[in-house]
């Protein structure tokens, strides 16, 4: 397959801990378990798209790797790193829709495992109460037959008993500046030339989700036409199908010149969803926050 046909989100999926942007705390915890050769059960929690699955896969490979790097990262070349039996993934809402079924499925797949596998349960807040109780017994068994990673966007919906048996690790969405830095690194690796406003606009519209950042970058650039394309923010708007920003400008002008009531009235008249309006306001602020000292200056140069 031509390299340009591989989605950027797949091509640049981190395979080492030091390639995970903006997750220093989570990486420090998980890499510490790997270096100590301590396969601890963990609960990864955080917003949708923050990178919980990527982190889970990396932790699983690192735990099994026979030649991990000094920072705890997997070597990605030994047979243990690539053995699919070492990392078994389950989608709780899909595979746990009747009590007991998920646990049966886990038992079935574990029959093929020769080593202690890592079991990844995504959207673990959807676990049936009886399944959560059964898992609790597994965590308490000595020795435990598997290492469990539970992931969720709603940790408060997981029973406190289950949570207490897991080491909780927060996975955060990227900050706006980490998002821009991440996009810059990928753009440089791909030989793409995006101006700073284009990078900030993609960052603002992707809400710090690494996968969305790269999917939006893929939409904006034409990687088949070779490297060193120059991309401007106008091209980003055109390629992402963003609407006219007249309402946004009116909103900020009213905020500066007429006050909050006038600005709120414009916000109400703006024919877009509230999530879309919010994205635009964030994009505007991110685009100009470094460059402009005052709101008035922002409006002159928008
Ligand atoms: Zn390895």
Describe the structure.
The two termini are 42 Å apart. The model is unreliable at 291-302 (pLDDT under 50). The protein is of the alpha/beta class and 302 residues long. β3, α7 (129-140) and β4 (147-152) form a beta-alpha-beta unit. α2 runs parallel beside α3 (52-64), α9 crosses α10 and α10 (196-205) packs parallel to α12. It has helices at residues 8-11, 24-35, 52-64, 79-82, 92-95, 101-110, 129-140, 160-164, 176-190, 196-205, 210-220, 233-239, 246-257, 260-269, 274-288, 295-301; strands spanning 42-45, 87-91, 118-122, 147-152, 167-170, 193-194, 230-231. Helix content is 50%, strand content 9%. The radius of gyration is 23 Å and the shape is globular. It has 2 domains: 23-170, Rossmann fold; 176-301, no CATH class. The chain has a 5-stranded parallel sheet, sandwiched between helices. It has a two-stranded parallel sheet with strand order 6-7. It binds zinc ion.
Can you give keywords for this protein?
302 residues, alpha/beta, 5-stranded parallel beta sheet, two-stranded parallel ribbon, 16 helices, disordered C terminus, binds zinc ion
Helix content: 40-55%
> What is the class of the largest domain in the CATH system?
Alpha Beta
Shape by Cα distribution: globular
So, CATH architecture of the largest domain? 3-Layer(aba) Sandwich
How many DSSP helices? 16
């Amino acid at each position: 397959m031509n390299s340009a046909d591989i989605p950027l989100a797949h091509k640049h999926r981190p395979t080492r801990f030091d390639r995970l942007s903006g997750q220093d705390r989570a990486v420090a915890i998980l890499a510490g378990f790997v270096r100590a050769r301590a396969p601890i059960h963990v609960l990864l929690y955080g917003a949708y798209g923050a990178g919980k699955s990527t982190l889970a896969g990396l932790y699983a490979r690192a735990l099994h790797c026979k030649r991990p790097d000094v920072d705890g990262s997997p070597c990605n070349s030994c047979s243990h790193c690539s053995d699919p039996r070492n990392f078994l993934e389950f989608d709780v809402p899909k595979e746990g829709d009747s009590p007991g079924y998920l646990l049966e499925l886990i038992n079935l797949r574990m029959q093929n495992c020769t080593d202690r596998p890592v079991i990844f349960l995504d959207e673990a807040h959807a676990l049936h109460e009886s399944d959560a109780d059964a898992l609790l017994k597994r965590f308490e068994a000595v020795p435990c037959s598997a290492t469990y990673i539970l992931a969720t966007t709603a940790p408060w919906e997981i029973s406190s008993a289950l949570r207490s048996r897991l080491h909780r690790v927060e996975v955060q969405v990227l900050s706006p500046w980490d998002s821009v830095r991440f996009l810059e690194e990928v753009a440089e690796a791909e030989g793409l030339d995006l101006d700073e406003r284009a990078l900030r606009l993609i960052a603002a519209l992707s809400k710090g989700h690494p996968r969305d950042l790269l999917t939006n970058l893929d939409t904006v650039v034409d990687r088949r036409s070779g490297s060193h394309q120059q991309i401007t923010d106008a091209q980003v708007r055109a390629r992402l199908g963003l609407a006219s920003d007249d309402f946004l400008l009116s909103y900020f002008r009213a905020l500066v010149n007429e006050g909050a009531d006038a600005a709120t009235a414009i916000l109400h008249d703006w024919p877009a969803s509230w999530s879309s309006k919010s994205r635009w306001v964030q994009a505007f602020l991110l685009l100009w926050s470094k460059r402009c000292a005052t709101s008035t200056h922002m409006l002159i140069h928008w």
